[in-house]
Design a protein that fits this description.
Length: 244
């Protein structure tokens, strides 16, 4: 079995192609659609010169584009470097230079800090918004196969908060994250009928591992809240009835 985390998505897309994977208010993306876009994201990154083993930054809020890009990066055997969307240019520069990221995918609203930092370290920024993804992937050849990796290969470089110094990149392997997902399954026994609440940032460990990867591993739905607001959170809980 290929231990690449991207197979969490491919397996669920094969079993539950029409089930909703990601929901953001009235937008619902099925597993088949999520996987197809991840293939195109992988193809886009390949066209930018990204190779297996390279680092790619993600500077995205809790929007459907996050899992699209996340699994696209993993699919091609590259390594994900999640970043807080509120980082300053100086902070982004540290993340990029320390990780060696060649490309950073940034939400348009927060792209100026990423662009300023990327120019200083020689990285490329792919700025995305709710409507331009189709243009970015137009004519791109999708990467159909999932690149084979070793269990101990790094999947995600997750940075510490930096409260006692510069943030440090913790290298999480494919096996490491899979082990965490298995623990989640043991604790909560989720299935494809469940709904996970994506209220915590997906660029942090809990939102990413428990909500996003936990849901995708069983073909469940993730209902997203881009920026925390208690009133909106209660509305989503009442509407979608998530179990986490």
């Amino acid at each position: 079995m290929n231990p690449n985390l991207a197979t969490l998505l491919t397996e669920s897309a094969e079993k539950y192609p029409e089930r909703t994977a990601i929901r953001l208010d009235d937008t619902a993306i099925p597993y088949a659609g999520l996987e197809q876009v991840s293939k195109l994201v992988a193809g886009l990154l390949l066209s930018k010169g990204v190779e297996a083993g390279d680092r790619v930054g993600i500077m995205l809020p809790n929007v459907p584009h996050f899992p699209m890009v996340y699994f696209g990066i993993l699919r091609m055997g590259a390594r994900v470097v999640p970043m807080n969307v509120l980082l300053t240019a100086r902070e982004v520069k540290h993340y990029l230079s320390n990780s060696g990221a060649k490309v950073v995918v940034a939400w348009e609203d927060f792209a100026p800090a990423a662009i300023e930092a990327a120019e200083e370290v020689g990285a490329e920024v792919i700025s995305i918004n709710p409507t331009n993804v189709g243009d970015l992937i137009q004519g791109i050849e999708p990467l159909e196969e999932v690149v084979e990796v070793e269990p101990d290969d790094t999947a995600v470089i997750l940075y510490t908060s930096g409260t006692t110094g510069q943030p440090k990149g913790a290298e999480l392997t494919h096996h490491n994250i899979r082990s965490n997902i298995e623990s989640i399954k043991d604790l909560f026994n989720p299935n494809e009928e469940d709904v996970f609440f994506g209220g915590l940032p997906l660029f942090h460990v809990f939102g990413q591992t428990v909500a996003m990867n936990g849901a995708v591993s069983v073909g469940a739905e993730i209902t997203l809240l881009p920026r925390f607001d208690p009133t909106k959170a209660l509305e989503i809980i009442q509407r979608d009835k998530p179990f986490t």
